[in-house]
Amino acid sequence: MPNLIPAPASLQRLEGDPHHGEPPHGELTGSGAPESYALEVTSDRVTLTAPDEAGLFYGRRTLEQLRGPDGSMPPVRIEDAPRFAHRGVMLDVARHFFGVADVKRFIDLAAGYKLNVLHLHLTDDQGWRLESPKWPRLTSTGATTQIGGGPGGFYTRQDYAEIVRYAGERFMTVIPELDVPGHTNAALLAYPELGPDGVAPPPETGIHSPGRSLNVGDPAVLRFLDDVVGELAQITPGPYIHLGADEVEGMTDDDYRAFIHAAAEIVSRHGKRMIGWEEMAAVELPPGVIVQFWTDPKLRDAAVRQGAPLIMSPAPHTYLDQKYDASTELGLSWAGNVDVRDAYEWEPGDDALGVEAALWTETVEDFGAIAYMTLPRLPAVAEVAWSARRDWEDFKLRLAAHGPQWEALGLNFHRSPQVPWTAS
Asked: For the chain, N or C: smaller number of CB within 10 Å?
């Protein structure tokens, strides 16, 4: 298979045989950018060198894509390095719950395209999906349903640790998200005293948010947040915790600003750095927080003016939950149809911290649906994150050659008419 993200140049050292056995493990070198690698395939040798283990991992992914059905590989010389340090994909496990095995399959899919961040959206109105020893009803009560009224589910701390371990072996950092202070219907169902009226709401099994928020003026809410963030920080080796902070209703600007500053202090006290969605940029931002842009250019620009680093997730290009076209059975369309070329032809800007695709799961109920909404758009976003030099006409041919590979793996994917799937 051809490499989806090439940046050809030159290199030197030769080792390994391209026609027999497994690809070479490669050799670590003391120079080069983080995650970069150098690769050469000749008629009788394969070279793979990199400055770190991640670079060797990505070089081996390229070798796997280069290897033909008969095990042979074409001559090639590549020197490759990522454009952005943050190359991510978000999986929403709150609207519909997905077990550890499905999350691992998703990690394998993302890591194969050199993504290095898995953002797990763990809580929302429809469910709280991570066990909390100090607040056990979050899962015993708040995780028992999902969109459509299914049984829901949650991860034990051991489950979450296994996801983190599995992702780490593939050089992916897990960024967990607890969405607060809005999108908290499941938390308020479990602990109604955290809400403004102390009354438990009905379970939310629809796709829309009922608009309930935590009572951020109550000191007990900050103690709750300190507990759940602290528990999460203990089992999250990565440097970030995402606290959502989006689409908050029923709260004054002053209360929202005070909550954002208190939340950032809590995250920092537990040794992590806070990320939140773009809505945070409407108020004065605490130092060090990272803003994830998704829809409003005014909020994006407000974040930039305040010096906040940006993760770029513009919905018309990176939201994998949007329909490919009007005939797509799954997905929503509030951001417009997002086909492969839309996911490929956009510019995040040199000042961004990185790029992240997002798969919200209002209409996604199983792994077959995950694969269908992810492929072939995720490789397009991955190339935006990896390479500054892009060519749609070249990319669509390289992408087409991955169709047989996905079929062989039993992956359901959308045969976009923008891609010549019969190409060899």
From this structure: C
